[in-house]
Every structure is written in structure tokens, then in C-alpha cells.
Amino acid sequence: MKEILTLQFGTYANYVGSHFWNLQDELFNPMYMNQESPEIAQDILFRFTDTQHGPVCHPRVVMFETKGGMGSVTASSLNPVDREAPFDHWRGRVQRVEADTVPKSKYLEYLDDQEEQQGQPAPASSAQPEAPALPDFALDDTVQYWTDYAKYRLHPRNVVELPGIHHDLTPFDLFPHGGSLFDSASMDDTMLENVRWMLEECENISGVHAIVDIDSGFSGVAARVLEWAHDEIPKHPLVTFGVMPHSLREPSPLLQEESRSRRVVNQALSYHSLLSVSSLFVPLSSSHLMPESFPGLHLQPSKPFHSSALFAAAIDTATMPYRMSSSALGEMTYFTSLLTSQPEMNVAALSCCLPFPLPRATSLQSFLQNAEGVHLVDWFTPLMPGFRKARLTFPLVQSIMCRGLPNSARVVTDVNGHATMGKDFSGVWDEYLARVPAAHTNRVVSDVPLPVPVPFPHFFSSRISHAGELLPETEFRGNGEDVVSCPMATQLQVSSAMSPHFEELQKAMKSVQRRTKLQFEKEGIRVDDFLNADTTLDSLVAAYGSQSYEDFSMEPEDDDK
């Protein structure tokens, strides 16, 4: 077993993480996976504990959040016996903050009721009662906290509430806020305690996933914690997903501009700090997404509940190649080495198509053959703002992951017109990708579809069947019929098409007003820190703007990052 430890920093990162863990939890359902020989090794991400009531699994994750940022769930409610233990060495100023108890969401109340019923004796009748219809939880319109839709089980070690930082009360919107908190008396031990415990529990660590809010003080916390992790396990990869939600609309143009400027500086400082400790860095933002960005979805990008679900599905799918029970790629180290054979280019762009646009009852072979002249960019939507979606810009290296295509898509027709049922989709994909210019393409195919758990957004178009297939123009999914799974594909690539993203950030950083920089300087940022961030952006623009796929070397480095 090769364990992966996941670290989540910030409210939006935990929105993404909550959907991610719901997806992982759903995969325990036999509907999605053969339990005798599962295609995905769940013990990579989960930790299993034997209790008197039987085995219990918890995510192998540490979530950093503000006090009150978990809604009806608190760190103390997870560990009522030892409520003050994590912070009993605090010697700083104490401020008493009282808040009303947050009621549980309808979905969490439903989970509580289900747990109670499981403990009750079975009915005397041997007849199996029909499963009652699920109520409408209306999560798309009512979610206020990421815990409102969390279906997985939390352990006390899963959560670190930042002491003294209260949700929507304490200013924590600047990168240096996190660093200052971490550097304050004894806070490093407080924030690292659970991370250290999780890391020491791993018998054979494969690497670390980090999901980081890069537009708040949490990026400052992440920079310190990930620097520590990098020093602790220097030969193991650290893959960081830097996430940003839609920017809030401010009441005046001046405040809007100040908010934009803070967002730019936070992002630039995060890039400088996080790239140096990450084997691979993947930025994700919903700021450029539109409702029509995904033809099969009714996406509302400004809703964190929607955009975070999209990001979680993309992260889950893109990381499957090194989480599968029998993967040709082997471990996480090899995967990151393939994508980062150029040391100065450890940023990758993630794109996805959700669902995969395969019409119902169509073979993958005929779909791809009919796609002559259709480029991959026509199927995949970039989750990186500023990505140049052009047909003449080819990846230097890419990892394509396709999952969950239906059995009907396996039909393969030979040159004589004889149709047979193919064993898998690998050969069909390879034949197509051989015609797509790229220095190197890694392709992985899985039969496991993207599960769509109950607390997932109801944003699928009525043209999408319950199994995620594209229906004919005259057909629609029935009323009350939910999508339960769907095929999906991701493209993780290093490409010169990413250069405009860095150029836009570089230009925006140069135009930041002096008064904005003063806000950061008052919180401890020095002039040299701004210069270092500028230098990092200059290096990224130079590295990604000058590469072409013809001269890209694919020899992985000998030493692990």
C-alpha cells in the first residue's frame, strides 16, 4: 500500500475537498466497483480502523479552517472528551467570541436519521420494503458551509481550526495573515500536530496532495506547512492544487478594484511560495467559467457549491492514474516526473469534459473516427484562466484520463466491416491520440465512472441520461430521474498555451497600486518579497512562452523531487 496524505487549506479548498471525499466515499458502493478486485485502491486515500462496532474508515486528510467555518460541525464536537487539548499551550491574548449554534442542513439531519434506523431491529416480515424516495434537500440553493453536504465520516485528527481566526469576523484575506499566525508563539506546533500524526501513521507514504485557497491568508499557512512537509519527506512528490472561487462583487468600483488588486498580489505571492515546495502545481479558478462552458451542464460558476464540485471531479479523475490498483504508471513519483521533466516548468493546466460527450449507443471508435478535424480542445474546457485554447498550440506533455465509458462503446469494427466487442478502450484511444501532435502523451482508461452522490449539484442537462450519456435531440431524461454516474475525461498538460495566464498575472502585478502593497507591507511583507514574486512570474513567462513540443525532452529526472 502506498498512502497519500491530503491537506486542505481554507474554506473554498474545503468546499472542493468535501465533494472530493464524497466521491471517494461513494466508490465503496458495489454499484461502482468490483469489491473483490477493486480497480481503485481506496486504502491509498483512506485510513481503516478496527473498532468494537467493526471497521471504520476516515479520510487521510487534515483540513484547515476558521473557527465557525464548519457550520454545525466543530472540532470540539468531533472530540468532546478532549476539547481544549490541541491549544492548551497557548499563552497569547484570549478573546471571547460567542456565536449562535448553526442548525444542521436537511441532508445532515437525513444522515442522522439513517444512522439511527440502522441501529433498530429489522422488521418481522421477510419481505424487502421498497426504498423510500429521497427527499429534496435543495442543496443547490441552501448550502452555506462545506459540511452541509459532507457524507463521509470525520475523525478528530481531520480538522485544525485556526485559533483566534473566526469565520466572517477576523480579517484573514491577505497572504501574510497566514504566515504571521503560523509564526506566532507555539502556533507552528499547533498547526503541525495533526499533520505530523497523520504522516507518522503512514507505513509507506507515496506523496502529498494539497488543495489551497490562494486568495486568502490560508495560502500563507499552506506555504509554511508545505515547506515543513517538503523538508520531512523530500524524496516524495507534493502535488498542489491552487483553487480560487469567483470574486465577490463589491458595492463600488473603487472597492472592486481594491479587491481585484489584493487577489492579484495574493496569487503572485502564493505562486512564489508554493511552486518552490511543490513537485507539481495546478491552478484552478472559476473566474473565467461561464454557464455555457460545459454544454452538458447547467453550471452556475459563481456558486461555490457548483464550481467546487466541478474541480473535485476533475482532481479525482486526473489523479486516478496513480491511485489504481494495477496502474502502468506505478507510483505518484513517476507520474509527476513525466509531467515535470523540465525543472523550471512544474505548473500544469487541468482541463476536463463533464460528461464525456459520447452519444448513447455509439462506439468510441466511430465517435473518434467521426471526429476528424475535431481537436481535443473542442472537448476539454480549461480550468486555468488565461489558457489559450488554440488548435495550433500543442501540449509539450499531457496525461489523458478517460473513465466510465459504457459497454456499448466497446464495439470495434475492422477494415472489412466486421464488428466485435473490444476488450477495453486503450487501443482505440491510442489510435486516435497518435494523430494528435504532442511531445508525449500518457493515456489511462478506467471502467469506473464518475459517481454522482446524492449531495452532488443537480446541474446536469435534461439531455444527459441517468448514466451520463448524451441523449438524442428528441429525448430527455425523465422528471425526477437523477444522474447517478457519468463518463468523464481530463487532460493535465504542460503547454505554451499556459503562457498567457502568466503574462496576464505579470501585467496585473505591475499595475497594482501602491496603497494595496502597503496593506501587505503592514502585515509583514517586505519589498524583497514583491521582487521575488515578480521574478517568479518573469521566469514562468520566459519558460512557458519559449517552449515548443518538437524540442521538449521527455527524459524524467533521476532524483525524485
Summary keywords:
single chain, 561 residues, alpha/beta, six-stranded parallel beta sheet, five-stranded mixed beta sheet, 15 helices, 17 strands, globular, disordered C terminus
Radius of gyration: 24 Å
Q: Name the poorly predicted regions.
A: 80-90, 122-129, 549-561
Strand content: 15-25%
Alpha-carbon distance between the two ends: 21 Å
Describe it for me?
With 561 residues, the chain is α/β, with parallel strands linked by helices. It has helices spanning 11-26, 75-78, 106-118, 139-142, 175-183, 187-201, 218-232, 253-275, 304-318, 332-339, 364-369, 426-433, 499-510, 514-522, 527-545, and strands spanning 3-9, 46-51, 54-59, 61-67, 159-166, 205-213, 238-244, 280-285, 349-353, 381-382, 395-403, 411-413, 419-421, 441-446, 450-451, 485-486, 488-495. The protein has a six-stranded parallel β-sheet, with helices on both faces. The two termini are 21 Å apart.
